[in-house]
Every structure is written in C-alpha cells, then in structure tokens.
Write a structure and sequence with these properties.
The complex is a heterodimer of chains A (324) and B (232). Chain A is built from 14 helices and twelve strands. Chain A is of the alpha+beta class and 324 residues long. Classes of the chains: A alpha+beta (324), B alpha+beta (232). At the A-B interface, loops of A face helix 3, helix 4 and helix 8 of B.
Chain lengths: 324, 232
C-alpha cells in the first residue's frame, strides 16, 4: 500500500477543510471496508485519508417529528439493521441492511461508505486490466466477461452500483445531506448518483472537499407495503447480482403510489420511472404489472453475457410488486 | 488552449488582403493569400467510423463528453451512435457472426472541405483550428441561434444507442444546459488526439490482434474528398 497521511477529523468542518486542501488526493473513510482493499490493490492511491468515524455527531439515528429518520453517514450498517424503529416502520431498510455483506462487515461498514463505495467490476478492481473509469483507457468489459455488468444506463463504462442500501433508501424517498466548502446541500438521494454519461470517473456528485453527512428518510407511505429482494450467487453473503426495492401503496385494488428501484443493474441505482408511471393509478393485476415491467425493461441493453439479468429483473420486480 | 484559431470573418478579411498584411493581422501560419472564393484549409484529419465494427458500447460518446467537460466546454457528446431499438451491446462479436449485425451507426462531423456552418454563423463562432484545421464552435462566442445546426447537410437521426431516445437533427448538437451548439472539434487541444478514438474498445482489440481488421472502428483519416464521400 502506498503511504498516506491520516487525519482523525473531530468535526465536519475540519473534515471538509482537510479534504478541500487535499483536492483529488484526499478521500474520506468510514469503516474502510471498501477503501482499504482499493488502497491495497493500488486502485486508489490517496495522499490523505480523513476519518469520519471520529467526527462528533455523524453517527446517529434520530426520528424526526414528521415520522421520518435522520441517519448519520458514520452510522454502522449493523446499527441500522438492529434499530427497533427501523425494523418496525422501515422494514425495507431493515431487510436491505440485514443483507449487506457479512455481520462482521456490517459491524464495521457505515451507511455513508455503503452509499459511496466504488464499483465491484473486476476490471476496475484489477490495476493490470485496462479500465475506462479507472485509468482512462478503455472498458475491458465490453468485449470481455460481462456477466455481472450493467443492462441499463451503461455507456462506455458498464459497472453496476453495488450498494444495497441505496435502492432501499431511494425507494423510501430519502434525501442526501452533503457538507462541503460551500455549506450544506440537500438533494434527493436519487440525484446523488450519476451515470457515466454525466461523469465517467465518479459514481456520485461529490466534489473534492465534500462529504455525504446524513441521509434523511421521510415518513413512509401510510398503509404501504415495503419489499426488498436480493438475488446473489450464493446465499451466505455476497454482493447483489440484482436487487429490487419497492414501496407500494394500494387502496382497494388500485395502486395509489409506488416507488420501484433496481440495484446492480446500472452504474447508478435505477429508479423505474416508466414502470411507476404506468402503475400509479392502475389496477394491481398481473397483466398490468407485466406490462409496466416490459415497458421499463424495453430500455435494457444487455451485453454478451448478461442477458439473463433482464429476465431476472422482470421476475424480481413482479414478485416485489405483486407480493408473491 | 494555445492553438491558433481563425474565424470566418477573419478568414475572408485576410483572404482579400495581401499575404504580408494577412500574417501581420492574424499571426496565422496556415493561411496564404487566397481569393475570397477559395476554401478554408482542409482539416488534417476526420473521424472515420466503420459501422460494421461498432458494438454500440457508447464509449466514444461518453469519452467525448467527459474530455470536453473537463476542458471547461459543453459536456454534450459531439459524436452520437444510433441503434436499432433494443440492440444489445457487442452481440455481433459475441455470436462469432459477421460484425455489423447489430446495426449501430456512429455519426460524427465530416469536417467538410466547404463547411456550410462556417458561412452561416452570424456570431463568427465557427472557427478553424490553426494546428490541425479542425472546424469547431467557439462556445464563448456562440449565440445559440441554431443556424449552423440547420445548415449542416448531414442528418443524424434515429434512436440514440446510449439514451434510447429519438433524435432528429444534424451533426451539430445543442446543449440546453450551457445554451450553446457544439460539434466535433477533433479534440484539437489534446496531444493524445480525439478522445473517442482512444476510448473505443474495438479499436484496442484490433490493435491487440483480438479482432482481425485492417482498419479501426473509429479511425482518423486524412480529410480529403474521397474520405469525405465515404463517411456515412
């Protein structure tokens, strides 16, 4: 591992200041479960690592007066997993947190780190293989082994966003709170992530000196059904081959509201706007659901080895919406 | 950017002057004293795509947008790849079939010898780079009137491979965020050359001998009449 300087930040302001001074050479760290591996493999070689776990008041889960949640970026995934109010009122988030990696990693890894983790693409993670995202050469996955790569939103680069919490939080309509040199910014978590055509080298909107400080989750849909499904190649623990997060509100037999998000299908969590638009106000029947899913996946551009993900996505979406 | 640039107005003014005053006025090294009817100097190179080799990955588009964004210019891609709806990425190669089955069509600017866009711009924003002769739009001058886009005789129409959206226009593209028009400038400020050519994975596979071809998917050809006519 290349040597680096370490700052245990005591406050958000100090963390932001240190990162701003370091520019592109500075990175924040939470639990380090992703960053340390990247540094060991020299995929990233920062000169400064700023520890956010030492920041006062960045690890918290608070209930808001409106019935929502504020989750600090340095909160561990395990704390989310075992929080009684989350288990009770946000089962979607509880399920997603419970399926993140292994218990040891959940004890160490943070919410901010899970949302900001780098891609698992084997070409990105191997410094010996060309990668358009990492070393600005070309994407090895296009003509290589792309069995786990993107079927939606890929262009030039075909990583999938590996976070389990991101689809769940977007389905819950969460907002990201960003701290930076310009102060505090708040944006829908969906807008926090970017596709390659917006930024080829980053997965989110964070600029040097900015950190994800908090996630704010509003009150869930009243009488809504929340579902989280994750498909992985082995049951013990693994990254998602594909995941679905769904928050659904049904009145009688009609869908009043729905938020449907796919994980691990695109370089960013994929909000199914087309399907949602077709389902909102429609009857909750298998035919209607199948039509909406087909319309959403008509945009899919499978690669040479991952066409199965289109079928997998359709089946998991169907189960999530119909509750089978 | 340190390259020399010539606008249409400057070019025509210079053409009417003597060679000596022209060099004094512009400091340009490529423009000789020419009659007003003469054409601007040819671009030294032009992006030459072979649709039969394209696998529709969109690397050319995103690399184009990225390098221009990083240079402080519009991040809209100057090259667009059109595709039949639902065309999978790279299937032609994967099936071992003759390439080109997927029907992708990259549509770059042809760097016309006699560019219409150069003539119609009321703001003198169309420029010719003094180093490689690339025709480009000076975005700091562009007034977004759209005359260049309308004057371009070459259509760029169909379903965009990357976004899946319908597009109907020409080889000049509008950036609604910056309110400017853009076109291929051959990345004339980059020592490495056009970003799209460097990012194309098929190009690299050809260069590594993994795909047999005597030319690249996105090549840089000399901008002459024969090349101009061959570009789709």
């Amino acid at each position: 591992m290349k040597s680096f300087s370490y700052v245990a930040a005591e406050s958000v302001q100090r963390a932001v200041g240190a990162l701003q001074r370091a520019g592109e050479q500075g990175v924040p760290v939470g639990g380090g479960t992703d960053l340390v591996g990247l540094m060991k493999n020299r995929v990233v070689t920062p000169e400064l690592v700023v520890d956010l776990k030492t920041v006062d008041r960045l690890a918290h889960i608070e209930e808001t007066p409106e019935g929502g949640l504020r989750i600090g970026a340095a909160t561990t995934v395990a704390d989310v997993q075992y929080h009684p109010r989350i288990r009770e009122r946000f089962p979607l988030l509880h399920e997603a947190a419970s399926r993140v990696a292994s218990q040891q990693i959940r004890n160490q890894g943070t919410v901010g780190g899970n949302l900001c983790q780098r891609p698992r693409c084997w070409y990105y993670r191997n410094p010996l293989t060309p990668c358009l995202r990492r070393d600005h050469t070309y994407c090895s996955a296009v003509l290589g082994d792309n069995r786990y790569h993107a079927i939606l939103g890929g262009a030039g680069c075909f990583i999938v966003h590996p976070s389990d919490l991101a689809p769940a939080l977007i389905a819950l309509d969460a907002e990201a709170v960003i701290e930076g040199p310009g102060g505090t910014k708040r944006m829908p978590l969906e807008k926090f992530f970017v596709l390659p055509r917006q930024d080829l080298h980053h997965e989110n909107v964070l600029k040097p000196g900015e950190i994800l400080a908090e996630v704010v989750v509003p009150q869930p849909m009243s009488s809504g059904r929340q579902t989280w499904l994750k498909f992985r190649t082995r049951e013990v623990w693994d990254f998602a081959v594909l995941s679905v997060a769904c928050q659904l509100q049904v009145v009688g037999t009609a869908i009043r509201d729905i938020r449907l998000v796919l994980g691990a299908v695109a370089p960013a969590p994929w909000r199914c706007h087309t399907a949602e638009g077709l389902l909102r106000g429609a009857q909750l029947t298998p035919d209607v659901v199948d039509g909406a899913i087909r319309a959403e996946l008509a945009k899919a551009r499978p690669m040479t080895h991952n066409a199965y993900k289109v079928e997998l996505a359709a089946e998991l979406m169907r189960r999530a919406i119909l509750g089978d | 950017m340190t390259v020399q640039q010539e606008g249409r107005r400057a070019f025509l003014t210079a053409a009417a002057a003597t060679a000596g005053s022209l060099f004094a006025l512009l400091g340009a090294v490529k423009v000789a004293a020419v009659a007003e009817t003469e054409l601007p100097p040819l671009s030294e190179g032009v992006i030459f795509p072979d649709p039969s080799l394209c696998v529709g990955c969109g690397a050319c588009e995103v690399a184009c947008g990225q390098v221009h964004r990083e240079a402080g210019l519009s991040g809209v891609s100057r090259i667009h790849v059109f595709a039949p709806p639902g065309a999978p990425v790279g299937i032609a190669i994967a099936n071992g079939a003759q390439m080109g089955n997927a029907g992708y069509l990259p549509s770059p600017c042809k760097q016309c010898p006699d560019p219409e866009c150069f003539v119609v711009c009321p703001a003198d924003a169309l420029r010719i780079d003094g180093t490689v002769g690339a025709r480009f739009i000076d975005e700091s001058v562009c007034v977004a009137c759209g005359k260049c886009e309308a004057s371009c005789p070459f259509p760029a129409e169909g379903v965009l491979a990357v976004s899946g959206e319908e597009h109907s226009g020409t080889r000049i593209f509008y950036d609604p965020d910056l309110h400017v028009y853009t076109k291929c400038d051959m990345c004339h400020w980059r020592p490495e050359g056009p970003a799209c050519v460097g990012a194309c994975p098929v190009n690299h596979s050809i260069q590594l001998g993994l795909i047999e071809s005597d030319h690249l998917c996105l090549d840089i050809r000399r901008s002459d009449e024969a090349t101009y006519r061959q570009i789709l």
